[in-house]
Write a structure and sequence with these properties.
This protein has 366 residues and is α/β, with parallel strands linked by helices. The protein contains 13 helices and twelve strands. The strands form three sheets. The protein has a five-stranded parallel β-sheet, sandwiched between helices. The longest helix has 21 residues. The structure holds fructose -6-phosphate (F6R). Fructose -6-phosphate binds next to helix 3 and helix 11. One of its GO terms (cellular component) is cytosol.
Length: 366
């Protein structure tokens, strides 16, 4: 059942090139520059004129929502707010019939997310679901939706469901851009052609497994760990930190790299590992100066870099390479080494990787 892997989590991490491929199947037509999302096609016209989107979710799914915000705003130019379902439901949020709410949930059973949906529905919003478990409660509550099709996720820490959620949100962003005309046909052809190659790039990113296993030895006795990223690398940092704390019980925090100097920099000393998303994209130079700030205080830097990078390599203590890609697809690739890192650290610490203490696969209580 674990397909030869020692744990479900490892199996699910290694399944990601396939699960992302499954998620895109029948939905992208790269040569035509076209996205087809059968689940929300009845709302295709509505999407041309919406003023804003609210994304509600919990935990890892909330992190996928933050990536979605970045992509939808960038490509479809629709304002997006991302809310923790538990906070949203207990406020008195302003929601109208013009709003589209996207609820993201692997299990489709999360109590807070369900309650947020019910409230938004009562106020007249259109609700889309992004769920993995077919026929679960959330897909039944929503008006329409797009399944992630990642297959059953057994490990309590979400891995392949997260990358599938990000894939669906990427498709939704391109679909909305197509409806609104905010991307040219040529640009859509280019982006979808690249997206089509992401599963192969995931396989390449997974090839760092042995290297990551070695690096994990250096980090296994840490008591704290900081994860930094900018732009769409920021939600990746949050997700990296959540994975590490969930399964290894090391305290970890994700931060926007530039926020470090507003507080967390006080934590940095020779015992503080800092994982930095430092790939070659629009914030590359800025991240380099953030790494210098960490090194100046003797922090230990593990950088996730673009294949062939030489600049960051001069400064960082450890580097893990991922294939080059447009910024749009960075979260899908940069997440892979962080999943493997937390897996190997947890294993070395003797933790129960698939069933971490105090956690449940679906949180059906508020
Ligand atoms: C993290 C994790 C949790 C879930 C959260 C939401 O690895 O598994 O943070 O992401 O409980 O669950 P779903 O997506 O089922 O609503």
């Amino acid at each position: 059942e674990k397909g030869g892997y020692e744990h479900f989590m490892l199996k699910e991490i290694f399944e990601q090139s396939r699960s992302i491929r499954d998620c895109m199947r029948g939905r992208i037509y790269p040569n035509e520059g076209r996205v087809q999302l059968g689940g929300i096609k009845e709302y295709a016209d509505k999407l041309k004129n919406i003023d804003r989107i609210i994304i509600v979710a919990c935990g890892t799914s909330w992190h996928a929502g933050l990536v979605g915000e970045y992509l939808i705003e960038e490509y479809a130019r629709i304002p997006v707010e991302v809310e923790y379902a538990s906070e949203f439901r207990y406020r008195n949020p302003i929601i109208t019939e013009k709003d589209v709410v996207i609820a993201i949930s692997q299990s489709g059973e999360t109590a807070d997310t369900m309650a947020a949906i019910e409230m938004a529905k009562e106020k007249g919003a259109t609700i889309f679901g992004v769920c993995n478990v077919v026929g679960a409660s959330i897909p039944r509550l929503t008006h329409a939706g797009v399944y992630t099709h990642a297959g059953p996720e057994i490990g309590v820490a979400s891995t392949k469901a997260f990358t599938a959620q990000v894939t669906v949100l990427t498709l939704m962003a391109f679909y909305m851009a197509q409806q609104k005309g905010t991307l040219t046909q040529a640009k859509l052809v280019e982006l979808l052609t690249e997206l089509d190659c992401i599963p192969e790039k995931i396989t390449k990113a997974l090839a760092s497994n042995e290297l990551i296993k070695e690096i994990a030895h250096k980090f296994k006795d840490s008591r704290n760990c900081l994860f930094l990223g900018r732009g769409s690398g920021f939600p990746v940092a949050l997700e990296g930190a959540l994975k590490l704390k969930e399964i290894s019980y090391i305290h970890a925090e994700g931060y926007p790299a530039a926020e470090m100097k507003h507080g967390p920099i006080a934590l940095i000393d020779e015992e503080m590992p800092v994982v930095v998303i430092a790939t070659k994209n629009s914030s590359y130079e800025k991240v380099i100066s953030n790494i210098q700030e960490v090194k100046a205080r003797k922090g230990i830097v593990l950088a996730i870099v673009t294949e062939g990078d030489t600049e960051v390599r001069k400064m960082a203590d450890y580097c893990i390479e991922i294939p080059d890609s447009s910024e749009a697809f960075l979260p899908l690739l940069a997440t892979i080494p962080l999943q493997l890192l937390s897996y190997h650290i947890a294993l070395l610490r003797g933790c129960n990787v698939d069933q971490p203490r105090n956690l449940a696969k679906s949180v059906t209580v508020e």
